[in-house]
Amino acid sequence: MVDExxxxxxxxxxxDKVTRSVYAICGLLFxxxxxxxxxxxxxxxxxxxxxxxxxxxxxVLLVLAAKGLRRVLKRDEDYYDR
Length: 82
What we know:
Helix content: 40-55%
Shape: flat
Largest sheet: none
Number of strands: 0
Distance between the termini: 45 Å
């Protein structure tokens, strides 16, 4: 058997560490909203965590819109072979 090079993401638990790290960074950035002065143009922008929540909701809506658009634009597997 040939010795294959093993990367650090191949080790058990490494992906979990990366996932936990991303969650921790997101949580710290969300809490960081407490520590700076806001100058909102609209009142809703002054709410705690507004931009984080707004970005999350926008991404979810983009994914749902893409799924709906896929149903409209999808072609059969043999579309170009006919």
